[in-house]
Amino acid sequence: MPAYRHLYAPQGGYVFVVTYGRSGSTLTQNLLNAIPGYAIRGENANLTHLFAKAIHLVREHEMFRWRREDLEKPRDERRPYLKPILGKPWDPWAGAEKVDPDQFSLALMDLFVRQVLRPPKDCRVSGFKEIRFHEDAAFFRDHLDIMRTVFPKARFLFQRRNHEAVAKSSWWAKQPREKVFAQLRQAEQLFLAYAAAHPDCAMMLDYEGLVSGPDYIRGMHDFLGEAMDRQAVEAVLARSLRH
Fold this sequence. Notes:
30% of the residues are buried. Helix content is 48%, strand content 11%. It has a five-stranded parallel β-sheet with strand order 2-3-1-4-5, sandwiched between helices. It is globular, with a radius of gyration of 21 Å. By secondary structure, it is α/β, with parallel strands linked by helices. The chain has eleven helices and five strands; from the N terminus they run H-E-H-E-H-H-H-E-H-E-H-H-E-H-H-H. The chain has a single domain, classed as Rossmann fold.
């Protein structure tokens, strides 16, 4: 059985819709799922954030990292702290030197695909949409970098919407307007910066453009390298969305 077979099963890779709440991203999810072979799931409470945090910790925490680094060195070149304990059962972090961050990353995301995304056998492209990526602004770039590195052929669609429309919708309407606008501005700054840094795998989308019709939506299909079925797109646009 191939290693990480669930992660590598979708031959066309992954698409992630990154946005905030009430941006109309369910429409984007439906448009993507109208493409043959796509299985784009809905929200998952930002589970990949937890997985990415664990991956980042194994890669960067000095107790893991120092042991990995020093394991490759002759004993007399190791850090003084580690010379007498590295590889010994009395090391307080015994075994940490054996944790491979790359294998750990692949194993976690393979589990995520197998147990959360659960793409069907005929799936070419999997993924999900999530409205919570921006809630940890300090970790936003690292989170997406990990996903971009671990998920094969990962692409990101960053979606925004007119702030006035968002502020009037659902739970946003119960919050102070300036607080809402500040959160939306911060989220979009994160989106724009990442998209600008990675134009090969990231694209900005506007909800207003999506609802304007197929001509705008064609740009998303072009970015993904997919032919657009105009009738399928029009059918999605005509469907009433309730969520």
